[in-house]
Write a structure and sequence with these properties.
The protein has 154 residues and is α+β, with helices and mostly antiparallel strands. It has a domain of 105 residues: Immunoglobulins (Immunoglobulin-like). The chain contains 2 helices and 9 strands, in the order H-E-E-E-E-E-E-E-E-E-H. Strands 1, 4, 7, 8 and 9 form a 5-stranded mixed sheet that branches. The protein has a 4-stranded antiparallel sheet with strand order 3-2-5-6, with no helix packed on it.
């Protein structure tokens, strides 16, 4: 009796796990657009757009990042088809460009605008600025080298 009960519970658990893994998100045939702008300053009102930055966008459903290059004014957009299931979730993005440190990863909700536009939309603006930690780390390293030579000289 116990073996039969345990076997049926194990089988039911296995079926539930398989169905949960194979579940897909239904976007109703609507596309998802993730768009934004890359700035050269965290103060977006006074910042300029950064052209030719590589932007990486990831939706947690498919978790395969897509990338694109920002336009001359710093804008970018990446489109997901309804089969890729990037609707009603969170999308994350970061940007890179030679001469700038990579941006921090930013996350945004993908909103449902299917009543008026048949579109899911996520807006993620990014700032390509050096992190404060980079400057402090460089200053600490230079200070340590200076102190080393100062102590060694005495």
């Amino acid at each position: 009796m116990k073996k039969t009960l345990m076997l049926s519970i194990a089988l039911l658990s296995l079926v539930l796990m398989i169905s949960a893994v194979s579940a897909t998100v239904d976007c109703g045939g609507n596309k998802t657009l993730i768009a934004g702008k890359i700035y050269d300053s965290p103060n977006f009102e006074n910042a300029s757009g950064v052209p030719d930055a590589t932007v990486y966008v990831t939706c947690p459903i498919n978790s395969t990042p897509k990338n694109t290059t920002s336009l001359g004014d710093g804008t970018y957009s990446i489109e997901y088809s309804s089969e890729e299931g990037c609707c009603n979730t969170k999308a994350s993005a970061y940007a890179e460009k030679y001469g700038f440190p990579p941006s921090n990863t930013q996350t945004a909700d993908v909103q449902d605008y299917t009543k008026n536009f048949d579109l899911y939309l996520g807006v993620i603006n990014l700032a390509l600025i050096p992190e404060f930690g980079f400057f402090v780390g460089t200053l600490t390293l230079l200070s340590a080298v200076g102190v080393f030579f100062l102590v060694r000289r005495k």
